[in-house]
Specification:
alpha+beta; elongated; 7-stranded mixed beta sheet
Length: 663
């Protein structure tokens, strides 16, 4: 027995019924019931010890008994009703249950602070509880912002605690309990609150970043709904969830067309927790202007290409104004995008147009943390090599301009140096004969220590370099870096042979009038989509040279196409130039997976010139190309004598005469 005061313990023991001794079998359990029959009002807490016969192997177990004796028949289900987080201007309901443990009915009445009467209601506040029965009271709570001033004394921190009291007719001690609630707003703000896209060229695009901030303690879901077709919201197409006090960045892009209005509202539906939903309006405005530089197409969707293939598309750029303009297209680095544009810079006179070629060479390109650094180093090496060549050319020109006097001066200097060398030869021989002094032990020890320190320093630098590379690799944000370059990538099945890599590039086109400064430069964008896959249709010859073929003569070459894919390859061919000299002899057939088919190519030159063309074969999944080359020649024969008559002279009968002629 732990309690040293025997009187309370003895009083507590007299109100308990339990077995003082019991027996528990091996590998079994035993339930020891305690029955509390209170005779005195108050709280009780006593410690008991369960002692076993084999105390040497089983230590005693401590048991703490806690009991409370009250003399009120009316009690409440919960001492604290937690309303959790409630928003202003919303209604909340909660059921409160009172119990009567006596056998007699009792009249009860509820009391609560009068300051809360505008915000909370109870129904009913007066009633009877039957014996051994329950009584339900419904509460309706609708707070507004004025509750913070009216009920300031009941607010502790960010929590409102409402004291409630239920008084019974024959019960001296009232039933006291509380309502606990945290109040919050359900507001959400947009920054900026008005989307002004400014001047935007027709069929071009503009993008704004919107900061959405949740000021509530509750999570809020949002969705940009019923968007006009000119708008695109990212990420997740304008759907998202804001956690309490979270800030979210969304991008709103618009690409106006001739039917686009100059202003309007975007609808945003909000859902606060599980209690309410509403719709907000975000106004926007735009000033649509005509672009002085017109593209024949602002969107290029390159066909899907297997590895090591290329495709080229062209667009026309027209100056629609009466002023000359300079334009410059700035594609991302070729090592990152695989895109080359020719020309990148051009001058367009009024009404003039030019053809721009966009070429894509397919390859799987994965942007890494050091990719741009390697590209910059390569560009710097090219610049240094160019500067070195220019410097060498200048030096060669300067060396070629030296006259004979300079050569004679060098000869004199060489003669004088040789004479001086002859005079100092004896001294040098003596120096050579002198043996070098041996290093002392101290000098050797110092050299070894210096070598050890040098090795340790190199090891430390190498370790720091590896740690830096690892940190850069783990912290590298590929999508963010691509976005800075104007790119977006979708990579599927990266670890299999069915991998496909899709890039979207927004290439800026800068233009300005010649009478304007660089500050007045405007920007338009050209969007290019590319797709790279593994090669499933393979040809045994990627390039064929027919050599020299006489005009109107033919030469045929056979190539073999193999389908390495999982689907039938229905071949199609891009048309060849009608008078290009090249043609396909046999029909294009479907190639089953794992099968091969021959294809016969014919070269028949129609003129004396060099022919070159690319044969492009397509299927539903892939593309393959073959470069064709050949040269048409026209043979010319001259005979001497020119008149074609060979005079053999006078010959006697039976004799023989030989003459020669040149072809």
């Amino acid at each position: 027995i732990a309690d040293e005061d025997l009187d309370p313990f003895t009083r507590f023991i007299s109100q308990l019924k339990f077995h003082r001794t019991a027996e528990i079998g091996g590998y079994s359990s035993f339930s020891l019931p305690f029955t509390f029959i209170p005779t005195h009002v108050g709280d009780h807490q006593e410690d008991f010890m369960v002692i076993f016969d084999n105390e040497q192997f089983t230590p005693p177990i401590k048991i703490t008994l806690i009991a409370r004796c009250v003399d009120v028949p009316i009690y409440v289900e919960k001492l604290v009703y937690d309303f959790e987080i409630c928003s202003y201007e919303h209604t909340y309901r909660e059921k409160m249950i009172l119990f009567n443990r006596s056998m007699h009915p009792m009249k009860i009445q509820m009391y609560y602070p009068k300051e809360l009467k505008p915000y909370i209601e109870f129904n009913p506040t007066l009633g009877y509880i039957q014996g051994h029965n329950r009584f339900e009271i419904w509460s309706k709570f609708r707070p507004d912002r004025s509750i913070l001033n009216a009920c300031q004394k009941y607010i502790k921190g960010d929590e409102l605690k409402i004291p409630l009291k239920v008084v019974g007719a024959n019960q001296v001690v009232p039933v006291v309990f509380d309502i606990k609630v945290r109040l919050s707003v359900d507001s959400i703000t947009f920054s900026p609150d008005n989307l002004d896209f400014g001047d935007v060229f027709l069929n071009a695009g503009s993008l704004l970043t919107v900061k959405i901030q949740n000021h509530s303690l509750l999570p809020q879901e949002f969705a940009f709904s019923n968007l006009p077709k000119e708008f695109v919201v990212a990420p997740n197409d304008g759907f998202g969830t804001l956690l309490p006090n979270e800030t979210f960045l969304a991008t709103v892009a618009i690409r106006p067309n001739p039917m686009t209005k100059s202003r309007g509202d975007l609808g945003i539906k909000m859902k606060t927790g599980k209690i309410s939903a509403r719709e907000l309006r975000l106004p926007w405005s735009i000033n649509i202007v005509k672009c002085p530089i017109k593209f024949s197409s602002c969107f290029l969707d390159m066909p899907s290409l297997p590895l090591e293939e290329s495709v080229e598309q062209t667009i026309s750029v027209v100056n629609t104004t009466g002023k000359p303009y300079n334009i410059e297209l700035s594609p991302p680095e070729y090592q990152v995008s695989g895109i080359r544009i020719t020309p990148m810079v051009a001058k367009l006179d009024p009404g003039q147009s030019t053809i721009v070629s966009i070429r894509y060479n397919s390859a799987f390109r994965d942007l890494e943390y050091n990719t741009l650094q390697k590209v910059n180093e390569q560009n710097l090496d090219k610049e240094n090599k160019t500067l070195g060549l220019l410097k060498k050319m200048e030096e060669d020109e300067a060396a070629g301009a030296e006259d004979e006097d300079e050569e004679e001066r060098k000869k004199k200097e060489e003669t004088a140096a040789a004479a001086a060398k002859g005079k100092g030869k004896g001294k040098d021989d003596k120096k050579k004969d002198a043996k070098p002094a041996k290093k002392t032990a101290e000098e050797k020890r110092r050299e070894e220590e210096e070598e050890q320190r040098r090795l340790e320093e190199e090891t430390r630098k190498e370790q720091e370099r590896k740690e830096l590379e690892e940190r850069l690799r783990t912290e590298f944000d590929k999508d963010g870096q691509l976005a800075k370059l104007g790119g977006l990538v979708y990579d599927f099945n990266t670890a299999t042979t069915s991998r496909s890599q899709h890039y979207e590039w927004s290439i800026p086109c800068f233009f300005k009038s010649l009478d304007k400064t660089d500050l007045d430069m405007k920007t338009s964008y050209l969007k290019v989509k590319t797709c790279t896959t593994f090669r499933t249709l393979e040809v045994d010859k990627s390039s064929i040279d027919f050599g020299e073929i006489a005009v109107s003569c033919k030469k045929s070459v056979e190539i073999l196409l193999t389908n390495h894919g999982n689907y039938d390859a229905q071949l199609q061919m891009d048309p060849l130039t009608p008078f290009g000299g090249f043609s396909v002899l046999n029909a294009l057939r479907t190639i089953a997976p794992g099968k091969s088919r021959p294809l016969v190519l014919v070269f028949e030159p129609m003129g004396q010139q060099v022919f070159e063309e690319t044969l492009i074969l397509r299927s539903q999944q892939t593309t393959v190309s073959v470069t064709l080359r050949g040269r048409g020649i026209r043979p010319e024969i001259n005979i001497e004598p020119e008149d074609g008559l060979l005079w053999m002279g006078d010959v006697l009968l039976g004799d023989r005469v030989e003459k020669s002629f040149n072809i």
